[in-house]
Amino acid sequence: MRTPRRAPDPSEILQGLTTALVVLDDRLLIAQMNPAAESLLGVSARRVTGRAIGEFVRPSAELVALCQRALTTGLTFGLRELTARVGDHEVVLDCRAAPLERERFLLLELYDTERDRKVRREAALVAQQQLSRRILRQLAHEVKNPLGGLRGAAQLLERQLPDPELRAYTRVIIEEADRLASLVDGILRAGGAPKLEEVNLHRITEHVAQLIEAEKPAGVDLVRDYDPSLPPLHADRNQLIQAFLNIARNALQAVDQRGRMIFRTRALSNFTLGGEPHRLVLSAEVEDNGPGIPEELKETIFYPLVTGKSTGTGLGLTIAQDLVARHGGLIEFTSQPGRTVFQLRLPVAVATGHGGSHGGGRG
Q1: What is the per-residue pLDDT for 4?
Q2: Residue 77: predicted pLDDT
Q3: Packing angle, helices 316-325 and 114-160, rounded to 10
Q4: Full DSSP string of 88-153
Q5: Contact call for residues 362 and 231 (beta carbons, < 8 A)
Q6: CA–CA separation, 193 vs 170, rounded Å?
Q7: What are the φ and ψ backbone dihedral angles of 286, each rounded to 5 degrees?
Q8: How far is residue 102's CA from residue 203's CA, in Å, rounded to a whole number?
Q9: 103, 94, 107, 188: which is closest to 142 by C-alpha?
Q10: What pLDDT is stored for residue 41 in this prediction?
Q11: If we measure between CA atoms, which residue out of 250, 17, 192, 46 comes closest to residue 111?
């Protein structure tokens, strides 16, 4: 006969939950919290016991009103997507206040929705990248097939024209056909598997910085903000240079004749990319103080032929995203007037095959 196993102690369950739980008394002073709440609020339970919850979630008016309503009525109430500052960062919280039977205590659940929103956002970017890759390949083949016939017809016509001035027009046709063919070849080559070698990320950012320094107007400042302790990557140097250059040139066009660009590098520990956790991810960022990305373009900015500029192919970001995806990474961005940041995220260790990747890392 098997001996019945001891049921877990409720306090053990409380400590193991990943949802932040805070027990408040009837004055909304903190009586107890679990480790998830300590992590979310950035404080230890021992230091905050007896202090008001409003000290740690600001502005606190909506949260306090929710708790008081639950205490007054004895019912459970919730609040979705409360934007507040916790410690030194901003979070978006789903909150639920439920009265406890014991001496008018209140159980407050705080759920940081940023992780879910980040996962959904990354999943959308990955889906965009996969669709964009298919569109690019199909578009490239559809454009390239008739180009050979167009070029050949122009060459035959050139031989029949006696007037050199008329032959100049056919030369334009031939040169433009060659230019389009070269563009299409570049698009098709961009989807190739990366040739991996050990690379320092700053060799990539500095190579691009030198190109931007040569191209930028005198009124544009380029600032470096590098983390010198970054480990090396196994990556295709040329592909990452192209991806970072495409982003940097977009930023340069955004600031126009006068503005500020920042090249920034950072290491991100225990970071998730496309729903896959990595112990260490390197981030190469380009920030500009231009007008920002129009709202109507933000959801489609990585699709082919989408551009907010009067000139350009609308392929730069699409190709950059595809090149980074070949390394198991992802390009994300945030944008508002006066501050746009594109973040090129790359896991430190990647096994590449058939266009996929598997995360690894070092701590």
Answers
A1: 60
A2: 94
A3: 120
A4: TEEEEEEEEEEE-SSTT-EEEEEEETHHHHHHHHHHHHHHHHHHHHHHHHHHHHHHHHHHHHHHHH
A5: yes
A6: 37
A7: -125, 120
A8: 62
A9: 188
A10: 83
A11: 17
Q: Which ranges of the chain would DSSP assign to H, the alpha helix?
A: 10-16, 35-41, 45-48, 61-73, 114-160, 164-190, 201-215, 237-255, 295-298, 316-325
Residue 75: count other Cβ atoms within 10 Å of its Cβ.
Answer: 11
Distance separating alpha carbons of residues 359 and 183, to the nearest angstrom: 32
- Residue 30 and residue 41 in contact, taking contact as beta carbons nearer than 8 Å: no
Peptide bond into 162 cis (omega under 30): no
* 172 class by beta-carbon count within 10 Å (0-12 exposed, 13-18 middle, 19+ buried): exposed
Q: For residues 151 and 153, what is the distance between their CA atoms, to the nearest angstrom?
A: 5
Give CA angle at 209 (223, 264), nearest 5°.
45
Question: If the chain, 363 residues long, is cut into consecutive pieces of 10 residues, what is the mean pLDDT of each piece?
Answer: 58 65 91 86 85 89 92 91 80 90 84 72 66 66 73 85 81 81 64 81 95 92 94 91 92 92 91 79 94 85 64 71 87 90 87 39 32
The set of long-range contacts for 203-212, using a CB threshold of 8 Å and a minimum separation of 24, is 203/237, 204/237, 204/240, 204/241, 204/244, 204/284, 205/244, 205/263, 205/265, 205/284, 207/241, 208/241, 208/244, 208/245, 208/248, 208/263, 209/263, 211/245, 211/248, 212/248, 212/249, 212/252, 212/261
The HSE-up count of residue 319 (CA atoms within 13 Å, CB side) is 25
Query: Quick check: 229 and 269 in contact, CB under 8 A?
Result: no
Q: What is the pLDDT of residue 360?
A: 35
Q: How far apart are CA 331 and CA 348, in angstroms?
A: 15
Please name every residue paired with 222 in a beta bridge, in sequence order, or none if there are none: 261
DSSP label at residue 50? T
Cβ-based neighbour number of residue 353 at 10 Å = 8
Which residues on adjacent β-strands are paired with residue 63? none
3-state secondary structure 236-259: CHHHHHHHHHHHHHHHHHHHCCCE
The residue assigned the tokens 């056909």 is 177
3-state secondary structure at position 68? helix
With CA atoms as reference, report the closest residue to 63 among 114, 115, 110, 112.
110
333: closest CA among 350, 351, 345, 323? 345
